[in-house]
Automatic annotation (TrEMBL):
Gene Ontology cellular component terms for the protein in this record: plasma membrane
Keyword Transmembrane helix: yes
CDD domains for this protein: 7tmA_OR4E-like (cd15940)
Family to which this protein belongs: Belongs to the G-protein coupled receptor 1 family.
PANTHER family linked to this entry: OLFACTORY RECEPTOR
Pfam families, per database record: 7tm_4 (PF13853)
Protein topology in the membrane: Multi-pass membrane protein
The organism's place on the tree of life at top rank: Eukaryota
Protein name: Olfactory receptor
Species lineage: Eukaryota, Metazoa, Chordata, Craniata, Vertebrata
Gene: LOC102917909
Transmembrane segments: 28-54, 101-123, 143-161, 208-228, 240-261, 273-292
Ranges where the G-protein coupled receptors family 1 profile domain occurs: 44-290
Species in which this protein is naturally found: Peromyscus maniculatus bairdii
Subcellular locations according to the entry: Cell membrane; Membrane
Entry keywords, A to Z: Cell membrane, G-protein coupled receptor, Membrane, Olfaction, Receptor, Sensory transduction, Transducer, Transmembrane, Transmembrane helix
């Protein structure tokens, strides 16, 4: 395998990304398919954020967290997809070492923050369904701001710790990453030192966060389902619809995190497909699930479009 260019014979200046495929026809299919997904992701999530901002009826804790989710999905997808689309058209897919580190930082910042956000949203639904009379007292705006600040702070701390683990390792070749973006497991595989302790830290950090949050979310929805048995059918139907949408997002998103970060840093053939789904498909599912299943969002969006049409006339 071709060696990298070095700085002081110890640091790799760039990495080569293998991408999703070396077949030109497959690459073109991937390019157009992922471009469509990315554009739809931007349009869908940005529309949700704008709609929530401009419709005062949606200024509630639930939609505050939903707007955060849409914002994170736009950022999360943008960290990897534009670079991947550009690389699909190039024969040699290179990324500078510094750019690789930056990509790792923001990838984990947005991914970890989303994990905590999904957990907070599960708690919000639990309070709304199981304790409706206390909802506005428990989930007041001060609490929402504290929870929002806490999840972004925790995501930042997690990302800094992961980036530090990666950047402090020596890299002296090979320099080929078996993926279409930089992530900690694939990068530390290339370190020219024993990474056993680093891998343990990754599993105990990211893997544990994913598992614990997943268990908390499942338990919260189990409690919700037990509570719904005592409610009328219409209320039960709407609550189940909301819970089903949330659980779909949680399962797809946390499923990737558990699969990638709860095992040693060994590349598997499935990693690329799981990563593509995680970075390209999942951010698109949120606007589809929440917009098409949520009457309030659809009504507010129609109202916003009509307002725009009236102004243009």
């Amino acid at each position: 395998m071709e060696k990298a260019v070095f700085v002081n014979q110890t640091s790799v200046m760039f990495f080569r990304l293998r991408g999703l495929s070396v077949n030109p026809k497959v690459q073109m299919v991937v390019f157009f398919m992922f471009l469509i997904f990315y554009v739809l992701t931007l349009i869908g999530n940005i529309l949700i954020v704008i709609t929530i901002i401009f419709d005062r009826r949606l200024h509630t804790p639930m939609y505050f967290f939903l707007s955060n989710l849409s914002f994170i999905d736009v950022c999360h997808s943008t960290v990897t997809v534009p670079k991947m689309l550009r690389d699909t058209l190039l024969e040699e897919k290179l990324i500078a070492f510094d750019a690789c580190v930056v990509q790792i930082f923001f990838l984990h910042l947005f991914a970890c923050t989303e994990i905590f956000l999904l957990t907070v949203m599960a708690y919000d639904r639990y309070v709304a369904i199981c304790k409706p009379l206390q909802y506005m007292t428990v989930m007041n705006w001060k609490v929402c701001m504290i929870l929002g600040g806490a999840m972004w702070t925790a995501g930042t701390i997690h990302s800094i710790s992961f980036t530090s683990l990666t950047i402090n390792l020596p890299y002296c070749g090979p320099n080929e990453i078996d993926n279409f973006f930089c992530d900690v497991p694939q990068v530390i595989e290339l370190a020219c030192t024993d990474t056993y302790i680093t891998e343990i830290l990754i599993v105990s950090n990211s893997g544990m966060i994913s598992m614990v949050c997943f268990v908390i979310i499942v338990v919260s929805y189990a409690v919700i389902l037990v509570s719904l048995r005592q409610q009328i059918s219409e209320g039960k139907r709407k609550a189940l619809s909301t819970c089903a949408a949330h659980l779909t997002v949680v399962t797809l998103f946390l499923g990737h995190c558990i699969f990638i970060y709860s095992r040693p840093s060994i590349s598997l053939p499935e990693d690329k497909i799981v990563s593509a789904f995680f970075t390209v498909v999942t951010p698109l599912l949120n606007p589809i699930i929440y917009t098409l299943r949520n009457e309030d969002i659809k009504s507010a969006l129609k109202k916003l479009i009509r307002r725009k049409e009236i102004k243009e006339k």
